[in-house]
Design a protein that fits this description.
By secondary structure, the chain is an alpha/beta fold. The chain has three domains: about 10-220, Rossmann fold (3-Layer(aba) Sandwich); about 240-290, SH3 type barrels; about 295-374, Elongation Factor Tu (Ef-tu), domain 3 (Beta Barrel). It has seven helices and 17 strands. α1 packs parallel to α2, α1 (about 20-30) packs across α6 and α3 packs antiparallel against α4. The two termini are about 35 Å apart.
Length: about 375
């Protein structure tokens, strides 16, 4: 691990109940560090279960009650103190409600990034300090180190690029990076599972969670309806027209919340060629559709920036940019255009750059910074 604390210093392990964070706990315990386990309880997994469109089952999601049980069991096996921290109210205020509002406004937010940026690390570090631990360790696949020449902490992509989670971590502050350890940054996932087996962890072969913790089945539309109903709110009337790029009306839709840029299915109109959502116009409630080639653009604008491994640049810089988690970073020129805003021009057109998503800027493997596409 980079910048190891003294072995007498207690480290709090952010335990999600998965194989990665459990292996981190076993690793540090075996190395003789005094450790405690922390799990954030973020969402009542059965809260909306069974409402119209919402499944009864809550399997396969991160931060589920089963994950809490698994984390507690690992802590008991390792013989370490364990704390479950109720952060449900804050999670709803800072992640769920902004997610709902963004979707209703025709944007496509990333709740996992919101959670990391605004809640998870902040809450974990505050709780850790309250129980006498100055640092936390997590199971994220990322690397961080202190660069004396720059006098700042540097966040980098991990050795296992297929598990790279830096896209979700661009909002971490220098103080948070200084107090966080990523012990899996130099490891490949198969080696992590093998190490879990060496430590005789029962969940060594537990599958990775795939779904967003509060959206079972992956249906954002069903979640929005169920959540608003529970809150006593009605779905805003954002019905409108489906139009092509020339403004010609092709059909009608029942609400902009049902669409995201790049979407093909569920448009409700027929065409000799496949049609995709190109743009969502919240003010007019128009959803613009067109052919796949029209999804490509070389321009990107982002705001709400966080500069990580570099200070805010005073002139244009060369970077590679990820516009979504599974996107291969693409070469671009990045310019600061005003207070908390940047624009980028890609060398090659990129597909489906989507308002509400994150744009993360890399220089080599280092995370230069990131922001939110608008």
């Amino acid at each position: 691990m980079a910048h190891n604390p003294a072995e007498t210093e207690t480290i709090a392990i952010a335990m999600s109940g998965g194989v990665d964070s459990s292996t981190v706990a076993a690793m540090l315990r075996a190395e003789g560090y005094p450790i405690v386990g922390l799990t954030l309880q973020l969402w009542n997994q059965r809260r909306l279960a069974g409402r119209e469109g919402m499944p009864e089952s809550v399997q396969g999601r991160c931060c589920s009650i089963d994950d809490v049980y698994d984390a507690r069991r690992v802590a008991e096996q390792l013989g370490i103190p364990y704390y479950l921290v109720n952060a449900q109210e804050r999670f709803e205020d800072e992640v769920v409600r902004p997610f709902v509002d963004e979707y209703l406004a025709g944007r496509t937010p990333i709740p996992c990034t919101l959670c990391n940026n605004h809640l998870k690390f902040d809450q974990l570090l505050a709780t850790a300090r309250g129980i006498g631990a100055e640092r936390i360790a997590t199971g994220h696949y990322a690397r961080n180190r202190f660069d004396e020449a720059r006098n700042r902490w540097v966040l980098s992509r991990p050795a296992d690029k297929s598990k790279d989670q830096t896209y979700f971590l661009f909002g971490l502050t220098q103080e948070q990076l200084a107090r966080t350890l990523f012990p899996l940054g130099e490891m490949e996932k198969p080696a992590v599972r093998a190490l879990a087996a060496v430590h005789e962890l029962e969940l060594a072969q537990k599958p990775d969670s795939q779904e967003i913790c509060f959206i079972p089945g992956g249906s954002y539309s069903h979640f929005l309806h169920a959540y608003l109903e529970e809150q006593g709110r009605t779905m805003p009337d954002s019905a409108g027209e489906l139009v092509n790029s020339s403004g010609e009306v092709l059909g009608q839709h029942e609400g902009i919340h049902a669409f995201t840029v790049g979407q093909r299915k569920g448009l409700g109109i027929s065409s000799p060629n496949p049609l995709y959502v190109l743009k969502i116009h919240p003010d007019s409630h128009r959803v613009e559709v067109g052919e796949d080639t029209q999804l490509y653009t070389r321009q990107l604008h982002a705001n709400r920036l966080n500069w990580v491994s570099i200070a805010e640049p005073s002139e244009a810089i060369r970077v590679s940019i990820k516009v979504r988690h599974r996107h291969e970073p693409a070469q671009a020129t990045l310019r600061v255009t005003g207070p908390d805003t940047v624009e980028a021009e890609f060398d090659e057109p990129q597909r489906a750059i989507t308002p509400g998503q994150s744009a993360v800027f890399y220089q080599g493997d280092e995370v230069a910074g990131g922001g939110w596409i608008y």
